[in-house]
Write a structure and sequence with these properties.
By secondary structure, the protein is mainly α. Helix content is 73%, strand content 0%.
C-alpha cells in the first residue's frame, strides 16, 4: 500500500472514531489547531490593512482619513469601489459569496464546506474595502476566514459532519476572540449565532480555540483591549431607566440599518457589479468630505466617543452618516 493510501486509511479511521464515540480530547486538539490557524490568518489580515493605511494615510499610523485632502478623501473610496467591482466582476457568483451569512448557509446546506477560493476573495476584497476608506469592518470577513480555517482542517482530515460543524464554530469563535482580544465574546457569538446549540463536545473545543487565538494575538499585539472603556459607577436605580431607553433607541437604529441594507441590496440590480461598487465608493467619498469619521473601521471614533471627546451633535451626525455609508456600501456589493 502506498504512503498516500495509508494516510487516507488513517484519516478514515480517525473520522469513524470521531463519529461514533465522545472524543472530547481529539476534538479539543483540533480546536487548538483551528485557533492557531485562525489567529495567524487574522494577524496577516490585520497587518495587511494596517500597512496599507500607514502607506496611504498621513500621520503615524491609525485611521487618519480626516488628514487627507478633500480630493483624496473622495477619490480613495471611489477607486477602491471600482477596483473591488472589477475584481468581483470576473469571478463566478458562487465564488463571490462571502461573510457571516455565507458561513451560516454553509453550515445549513453545504455540509460545513467553505471553499478556499471564497475565503481568498473575502480576504482581498475586505482588505481593499477597508484600506480605501469604505465604511465596513474586519469582524465579518474575519469570521469567514476563521470558519474557512476550521472547514479546511476538517475536510483535509475527512472528518464527519458533526465534527466539521464544531471546527467551523471554533474558527468563528477564534476570529472574534482574536479581533477584539475577548475570548468569551467569541465563544458566546459562535454558540448563539453559528451552532445555535450548547453541548459539552461542542462547547469545550470552541472555548479552547478562542483562548488559543487570543493568546496568539496577544503575543503579537499585546493584551490591551480594542476599546478603552473607563470605569462606570451605577449610583442609583434610575440608571436602569436610562439603559431601558438606550435599548429602545438601539433597537430603532438596528431596524433602520436592516431596512436600509435591504433597500440598497434591491437597487440597481440591472447594472454591472463594478458600476454598483463604484457608486458605493462615490457615495462614501461624498459623505467622507463632510464626516471623515465614518471612513474605515471606526475604532478610533468609538474610543473617542466612549472617552467623551466627541460632542453630542457630532455624534448624531456620525451615527446617521455611518448607517447610510455602511448600508449603501454593503448593499451595493462591497
Amino acid at each position: 500500500m502506498s504512503l498516500k493510501n495509508k494516510l487516507s486509511e488513517h484519516k478514515r479511521k480517525f473520522a469513524f472514531q470521531l463519529s461514533t464515540i465522545d472524543q472530547l480530547i481529539p476534538v479539543s486538539i483540533l480546536g487548538v489547531m483551528t485557533g492557531l490557524l485562525t489567529g495567524a490568518i487574522i494577524i496577516v489580515f490585520r497587518q495587511c490593512i494596517e500597512r496599507g493605511q500607514d502607506w496611504l494615510l498621513p500621520g503615524e499610523g491609525g485611521e487618519n482619513y480626516a488628514g487627507l485632502p478633500l480630493w483624496a478623501r473622495f477619490l480613495l473610496p471611489t477607486l477602491g469601489g471600482l477596483l473591488i467591482g472589477l475584481l468581483l466582476q470576473n469571478i463566478s457568483a458562487a465564488t463571490r459569496r462571502v461573510g457571516v451569512i455565507h458561513v451560516i448557509n454553509a453550515l445549513a446546506d453545504a455540509h460545513s464546506h467553505l471553499p478556499f477560493r471564497n475565503a481568498v476573495v473575502q480576504f482581498f476584497s475586505a482588505t481593499i474595502s477597508i484600506i480605501s476608506g469604505h465604511s465596513v469592518g474586519r469582524e465579518g470577513p474575519g469570521i469567514h476566514l476563521g470558519a474557512a480555517c476550521g472547514s479546511w482542517l476538517g475536510h483535509s482530515l475527512l472528518l464527519p459532519h458533526n465534527t466539521l460543524r464544531t471546527l467551523v464554530a471554533c474558527g468563528v469563535a477564534a476570529s472574534i476572540a482574536a479581533s477584539f482580544n475577548t475570548p468569551l465574546a467569541g465563544v458566546i457569538f459562535s454558540m448563539e449565532v453559528v451552532l445555535v446549540e450548547y453541548t459539552v463536545l461542542g462547547f469545550i473545543p470552541v472555548v479552547v480555540a478562542a483562548v488559543v487565538a487570543t493568546a496568539v494575538m496577544r503575543w503579537v499585539y499585546g493584551s490591551d483591549p480594542i476599546f478603552a472603556i473607563p470605569s462606570v459607577l451605577h449610583n442609583s436605580g434610575f440608571d436602569l431607566i436610562y439603559l431601558f431607553f438606550c435599548g429602545l433607541v438601539m433597537g430603532v437604529f438596528a431596524a433602520v440599518f436592516i431596512a436600509l441594507l435591504r433597500f440598497f441590496s434591491q437597487q440597481l440590480l440591472n447594472i454591472a457589479l463594478w458600476q454598483r461598487t463604484t457608486l458605493a465608493g462615490v457615495l462614501t467619498g461624498c459623505i467622507g468630505l463632510f464626516v471623515p469619521q465614518v471612513m474605515g473601521i471606526g475604532y478610533e471614533s468609538v474610543n473617542a466617543a466612549v472617552l467623551g471627546d466627541i460632542g453630542l451633535g457630532l455624534l448624531l451626525v456620525i451615527v446617521v452618516a455611518k448607517i447610510f455609508a455602511t448600508t449603501a456600501g454593503l448593499g451595493l456589493g462591497l
